[in-house]
Fold each of these.
Amino acid sequence: MNLLLIHFAMRASAWSDVSAALRRDSLADDRPNLLRVGCAKPSRRKAAPTIAGIVCGLLLLVWPVALHAEDGYRLWLRYERIGDEKLLAAYLPALGQIVLSTPAGTDSATLAAARTELAAGLDGMLGLKAVVIVVAGAPASAVGEEGYSLQTTPRDGRRTIVISASRDIGVLYGAFALLRLIQTGEPVDKLNLTSVPKIQRRMLDHWDNLNGFIERGYAGFSLWQWFQLPEYRDPRYRDYARAMASIGLNGTVLTNVNANALVLTPAYLEKVAALAEEFRPYGIRVYLTARFSAPIEIGGLKTADPLDPAVAAWWRKKADEIYSYVPDFGGFVVKANSEGQPGPHEYGRTHAEGANMLADALEPHGGILMWRAFVYAADNETDRVNQAYKQFTVLDGQFRDNVVVQIKNGPLDFMPREPFHPLFGAMPHTRLALELQITQEYLGLSVHLAYLGPLWQEVLDSDTFAQGPGSTVARVIDGRLYERDLSVIAGVANTGSDRNWTGHPLAQANWYTFGRLAWDNTLSAEVVAREWTQMTFGRAPATVATVAKILLGSRETVVNYSMPLGLHHIMAEGHHYGPGPWVHHERPDWSSSYYHQADEIGLGANRGAKGSNATGTYAKELAARWDDIETCPENLLLWFHHVPWDHRMKSGRILWDELCLRYQQGVDEVRTIQRDWDSLAGKIDAERYAHVQALLRRQESDACDWREACLLYFQTFAKRPLPAGVEAPAHDLAYYEAVKLRYVPGHPGDY
Ligand code: GCV
């Protein structure tokens, strides 16, 4: 054992080959001890034995092996041994053998992945050498293309669990589901369930540049090592694919929507093909962002006019070429005529004309085109939150069948809270996709804890009233409302090269939850938060209750200390970390005052019928409710109304006092989270415990900064004292205005 450990210390190894790592189970458990006694972190390169490595190994000869730490690499797929004897006794007989049943009944790379996963998981959790066999079964029509069924049934005199599906990928999803049941302590002795994804294309959108930088990425650099591809394939690609498949995601957009046409050249397509090959066994298709001006930049054409036949021909040929490299290529995502990206407007053409031309190029290969509705312009007089509505509703019905208009959850830009985007209720003749942001651009990057499940659930459950009550965003985007045959959901990834994938250890929950909600948009954030916690920190009830409580309240906490009561876009300029209600930019729509509209009378944007009429972009039921300052929900009040400082709130307090106390409440809530987290000492591993604890300390201090900066600034308009219960600021306003952070991760301007 100790010799092995010495060997392991010397061998900075392919830790990321998870199946191998899980087979080395004892090593997996011991490895973090090496870190705890001061060894350098293992790199993925093969290293020669080092003195430090040997010393570490020798130290371990005398080091008690009781210590156990985690660096987060294994995500929610930890497969720790179940210590509960009663549970073990229940599981072992139920898992006599596992049958993988598909119509073909032959092994494939995908079924091999399922077998490897089951072997690793069952061995890890139960010490069971699973008997897994593949059989030809009747096509399981009720589970569709990707669903699965799990059944406990006797077979050949043994208790057996049958995982059946119409395609191999369904079996892989079923295998992950079975392992999840065991990880969460659910019984498996009477299984009889089916599960079918509600949305067809469940994608992670990476805003990764070809130079490795991730726009709005806070967990290191890109996972894609473009320079080393296609020859070298980092084993981490497989681990990424495993993680994706384990939560049911089936698409990855490799590149930033602020696109680089180079990725469409043969030199890069070879690399894209290598990634696609790594991901294919896990059911993940690759997609790319298409720069609209690519025909000029890499094609030598003089124009990118979508109605120019030479341009259309160029894209058709380009699509043919891409499919020759990647036969199952998913399609393109396009950001056009927004934030400086080229688009059809340059040629007097519409978004529909631009999108359709690209869609026609993809159509012969079955590809789809996701055209983003995140459009706004500096010289547009229309309120920014109404611009996409104005540009896109007139195009409803003009898009090809393989076009999906991809819409951010809110009409502005992934704020801590926004109303849902009005386009979800206003384009009945167009396929619409929901774009969520998993990376926390406006919610404290990967420094603050903000579990986004409740935010996403709030959006999915929002009623557009498009076809009467019950026309929720969830039903619009999964195709149920209009019986659509193509449905898409996308999440802007929070992954990166950090050892723990997401920077903040608890931000893994956001990746996990996005996948689970993409599969089943009716799941509650609470259920998913508990599930993730059990898989990530173990099933001890007190731990699960505490972590789930921390997670579930954390988004509202961020809202409270940063942008309460419907405030929005008052963050620092550029990097978007920390407060900046005073930010003044030559572009009004990049200035905070454009959004908060603070003056001596009050605070908040005037978006009712007598203002910019954003309320009028929603169904009449909502417009009426939101137009009236008395019936507008308080959590959106300052989004829709310019509210007098002495307006009486539901609490009986005036707006100014309420605002101050909300900021204070946010700070107090962070402190409660800190105390709750502290109560986990000794109950979870020391490494993640300490990491989160340190980040929470920073979050508390940042929350105080938010409160003080915003209240001092708004006080210059409100001219009222801070009410009792709000802590006195530590600094004056000038101090906060002078704070200039440099090299904030993910900020494209700072490199
Ligand atoms: C990728 C916001 C972000 C940009 C991002 C843009 C988008 O404006 O700050 O970094 O660009 O949204 O979604 O296209």
Amino acid sequence: MVSKEHELSEEIVRLKKERNAIILSHLYQRPEVQDIADFVGDSLGLAQQAARTDASVIVFCGVHFMAESASILCPDKIVVLPDEHAGCPMADMVNEVELQRKKQEIPDAIVVCYVNTSAEVKAECDIACTSANAVNVISSLPMDRPILFVPDKNLGHYIASKTGREMLLWEGCCNTHDRLTADDILTAKAAHPRALVLVHPECRPEVIALADIVTSTTGIIQFTRENSAGEFIIGTEMGILHALNKQCPDKQYYMSSDKLICSNMKKITLEKVHQALLNLSPRVEVKQEIRERAVRCLDKMLEIKRL
Ligand code: 13P
Ligand code: SF4
């Protein structure tokens, strides 16, 4: 018997061709959503794919700032986010008015934003970064100017420790990664003493201090593929397990905590992807005036390599 999920997936593939659409999925999406995507990756990989696609429609299976970045990079394309309420609570921790005020206090600062920000905030910044290129972005900046980094204090703390640069950090964080504690890691290590600990740089400094490897979601997958170890403790959102098990099924992965679920990433379902392709909505669009200022900071970021 053909399952409902299979039928829906086939209909999505048919509609995708009809619409000349590409489906991009973040690694934190539901397994069945990742499976129908043309490309599954981290924030940097998704922005790069969006920038280079010749499809007419981008169906973004991720959260709002990701679809917005795609729209900033490709203003002539239709960008749809299958659930308009899939936001990123960390991106909401800074707005353009607060940032303008802070910039007035330190007028010579270079302002760097994590890509997890709104288009309005990006329009106020000099350069963006993702977790995959943050160290390289900060290292590329002139030494004689202060750096203001928004909004993730955990990522900011990690980059400052890696680059030795002094950075003024915004009081924001990812509420999913910030749930992971040093105790969680110690408990997981005690249960799996041979496993390497891989964590995302959005984790707290005391968690990062206990990790063997700190890297983006794509970095975690690449590491497990290339490293000879057979067991890994994972310190990022649990959606990554699907890609890990698919790409390297012979290895063992242990979640460091069962609290690592981003409810916003899980809002996208196959049904919503189908509806989005059918109706070409909900669309994500950015006002021309904001886009023109925000695109500069994304373009500068895309010139800089991954770690
Ligand atoms: P990366 O995709 O850069 O690994 O970041 C994870 C994340 O939290 C995206 O919202
Ligand atoms: Fe935002 Fe964290 Fe969810 Fe990523 S995992 S979308 S940073 S809340």
